[in-house]
Amino acid sequence: MANNTLPANLDRLFTLAEDMADGLHSLEVEVGVKQNTEAALRGDLKAARSTEADFQAARQAKTTATTAQTVADSNGKAWLGVARRTLVNSFGNAWSQAWTDAGFPDNSTAVPDTIEKRQELLASLGAWLKTHPDHEVPAPNVQFTAARVGELFKALSGARSGAKTAVTNTGSTKAVRDATVEKLRRRMRGLIDELDLLLADDDPKWHQFGLNPPAATQRPDAPDQPILTPGAPGELHADWSDTRRAESYAVEIQVEGVDADWRHAASVQDSDATLRDLTSGKKVKVRIITRNEAGPSTPGPEAEGTVP
């Protein structure tokens, strides 16, 4: 018996939802669907796609904000190293109360090992230099000045605030995305259950909804030829189109001069795979076999690539 398990991958889920909505457009009235209509399904799909776009935008913003924080912290840390070496000339290498007065924490002369303490030290040194201008070194290669540390503190403080906001926004947009996707899944499962009451298990109309007839024992179609892309040294990335009725994919390879026949390399549920631990410079043939509970397809056409 074939099943109609909803894909975990969102792109595949959205594609199936679109197929189901197209089926409703053609057959909703004829079949007698009343609860999970085309309008309801398309509304849920639109909301899920919109919130997924918002989440991906938030993730990108988080990456940008995190990078800005890293840069600001790196600049601040480098300056603190210069500041420490400058103060050694006045305070000596050993810790003393003078180091604490300047803002160095934990009875130490070391640059702090956390971003929070580095930010605090920048603030403290800025305040200390304002009251001890005689210790400033304004030379271009040093810039041990209250003005310069103020710039660095402002940059790091702003970057950390932006990163925290981005992290919070990513979490909230993910929660909204997850809720709308779950609503879409409930709608899709509801339609499958409704069709189960309205269609015979072997009715070919199931296919018009992008679904498998429950009584079907058809194996999946053979997949397209994979596209091979070089990755890191020793890696090839294989990508191919989603295949009708496929529930998983088996990736087989044949390495030139190594394999006399095809051998299994990976089993995946999505239509892509990264092949690792290959020998750089070797030519590798790759083919895909689709699977469902009825069995495997015939192998798809092979592709050949050279391992970077």
Task: Give a nutshell description of this structure.
The chain is an alpha+beta fold. The chain contains 6 helices and 8 strands; from the N terminus they run H-H-H-H-H-H-E-E-E-E-E-E-E-E. Strand 6 and strand 7 form a beta hairpin.
- What's the main sheet like? 5 strands, antiparallel
SSE string: HHHHHHEEEEEEEE
pLDDT below 50 for ≥5 consecutive residues: which ranges? none
Q: What class would the helix/strand composition place it in?
A: alpha+beta
Write down the overall mean pLDDT.
94
Q: Kindly, what is the distance between the CA atoms of the first and last residues, rounded to a whole number of angstroms?
A: 43 Å
Strand content: 5-15%
Number of helices: 6
Write down the Rg: 30 Å
Shape: elongated
Number of strands: 8
Helical residue percent?
40-55%
Protein topology:
Layout: H1 10-31, H2 38-91, H3 97-102, H4 115-131, H5 146-198, H6 205-208, E1 227-230, E2 236-239, E3 248-255, E4 263-268, E5 272-275, E6 283-292, E7 295-296, E8 303-306
Helix pairs in contact: 1-2, 1-5, 2-4, 2-5, 4-5
